[in-house]
Design a protein that fits this description.
Chain lengths: ~120, ~375
């Protein structure tokens, strides 16, 4: 499994032709207490960089973008019951959705863990 | 090159370093770097509701007005009873334009020798210009920009503050006085904008760090950011200028009729009096209401409010209530849809969320009132 990161602070864990997407620990820390997550429905086609989800904190709503083009296969229903999973386990149980990759070559433009860490350190 | 400073220069306030040392996340607000949060809005909000939070509100404008004929002059500007305000008492009031639209909301108090006034940070320069224009020359407007303003809010604020400034426990809601606060003269009122019991404390800027340190050394007190101040005031049903109040809104629409006493409604003589008195007597065309949303998704400022297919209003403040663990909002709707229990829908990114009109405050006020 390979994990990639975007400059918009999403992570994508890829295994074969499918992937899991969420927001990074850095992102959840910036957002603060998360109270609601609006997730894409199964079957929805997402485009790279396009709107995929909305994450709401006490104070504000933020868009979450899809790191790649693909079709949603599953949304994390656990977030409906407990949105704070995004705060407590952003890169684990707090994942947002799974999708099938339309074009694995799109991953090449994303950052690996070391690059992403350097990116955040520079912010 | 111009001699004038660019309008977007962001200034620092007396407690800037103090906030940063305590890990605050600083953001530009009303022209100043301000602490938005320390450990997080949710825990800071809940701490204030159960203990005491220290808020730096030094960005707000503190004015002291003096001069012969001050009361009458102020009554030509404010729709309040100024002449009946005795020493040590404080009132909420409004600056209105000629149509009754709200230019700002404010607090004013009678101190020996004059009237002390606190106005909003983002509007203070406009307010000062407005007062200069509206008041006669004999009235002196002193902008106390050498003073800091600290709000200590929450049910245990009285315990913490009375140890350092004995006597403040005797104040009741909307009264004030000058106190010795650990060796410095502090102007303290029992008021605030969170719905909790608490105090606002004005001290000389050079004393602000020492005072903030001493207050935070009390076990009940933690520093709290403006993020939680906003969620607290929303739960308390208190409107915020620039969001719930502006020049398109008059006091009757905003549900602020309590700020205009009977004498002023009868006599008039304040800006916009004709419209305001008419709306107070006959009912305003739109009204500020509280809304409780179904589900967990909040509706934010600007979201449109519908009754079926009919657009009936707009959300002016919305968020997730940490105390109620549910989304709440404040907004303006047409009078026909403003009654408690009216079922409405709010458009959030194309999705209609069910909402219901509820009485405000969402969380009961805990002011300590006199008998």
């Amino acid at each position: 499994m390979s994990i990639f990161y975007t400059e918009e602070h999403e992570w994508i864990a890829v295994e074969g032709g499918s992937a899991t997407v969420g927001i990074t620990d850095y992102a959840q820390a910036q957002l603060g207490d998360i109270v609601f997550v609006e997730l894409p429905a199964s079957g929805r086609e997402l485009s790279k960089g396009g709107d995929a989800a909305v994450v709401e904190s006490v104070k504000a709503a933020s868009d979450v973008y899809s790191p790649v083009t693909g079709q949603v296969t599953e949304a994390n229903s656990a977030l409906e019951e407990d949105p704070s999973l995004v705060n407590s386990a952003p890169e684990g149980d707090g994942w947002f959705f799974k999708l099938t990759l339309a074009d694995p070559a799109e991953l090449e433009g994303l950052m690996d863990a070391a690059q992403y860490k350097a990116f955040c350190d520079g912010l | 090159m111009s001699d004038e400073e660019p309008a977007d220069i962001i200034q620092t306030l007396p407690l800037d370093d103090w906030h940063r040392e305590r890990g605050a996340r600083m953001v530009p607000f009303a022209g100043y770097h301000m602490p938005i949060q320390y450990e997080g809005i949710m825990p800071e909000h809940l701490w204030t509701r159960e203990s005491a939070g220290l808020f730096d509100v030094s960005h707000m404008g503190q004015l002291f007005l003096t001069g012969d004929g001050l009361d009458a002059a102020l009554e030509a500007v404010l729709p309040s009873d100024v002449s009946g305000l005795t020493e040590g008492r404080q009132r909420y009031s409004l600056l209105l334009d000629e149509n009754g639209g709200i230019l700002d909301d404010l607090m004013f108090s009678r101190f020996p020798g004059g009237i002390y006034m606190v106005v909003n940070g983002a509007t203070k320069w406009d307010d000062i210009a407005h007062l200069h224009e509206a008041l006669p020359e004999e009235i002196n407007i002193n902008h106390l920009d050498e003073r800091a303003l600290i709000a200590l809010q929450g049910p245990k604020a009285v315990d913490a503050l009375s140890r350092l400034a004995p006597g403040v426990e005797k104040l009741v809601f909307m009264t004030c006085g000058k106190f010795d606060l650990a060796g410095t003269e502090a102007w303290i009122s029992r008021s605030g904008y969170t719905g909790e019991d608490g105090y606002e404390i004005s001290v000389q800027a050079e004393e602000a760090e020492r005072v903030a340190d001493m207050l935070c050394a009390e076990p009940e007190v933690k520093p709290i950011g403006l993020g939680a101040r906003d969620s607290l005031r929303l739960e308390a049903g208190l409107p915020l200028y620039g969001h719930d109040l502006d020049t398109a809104i008059d006091p009757a629409m905003a549900g602020l009729g309590f700020a205009i006493p009977k004498r002023r409604r009868t006599e008039g003589g304040f800006p916009g009096a004709t419209t305001v008195i008419k709306h107070l007597a006959e009912g305003a065309p739109t009204k500020r209401v509280g809304l409780k949303l179904a589900g967990r998704q909040p509706a934010r400022e600007g979201a449109e409010i519908y009754a079926g297919d009919m657009l009936v209003g707009k959300v002016t403040s919305g968020g997730f209530s940490p105390s109620l663990q549910a989304p709440i909002a404040m907004g303006f709707v047409t009078a026909a849809h403003a009654a408690t229990d009216t079922a409405l829908q709010i458009d959030v990114r194309g999705k209609r969320l069910d909402a219901i009109v509820v009485p405000m405050p969402f969380v009961p006020h805990r002011y300590v009132r006199g008998s």
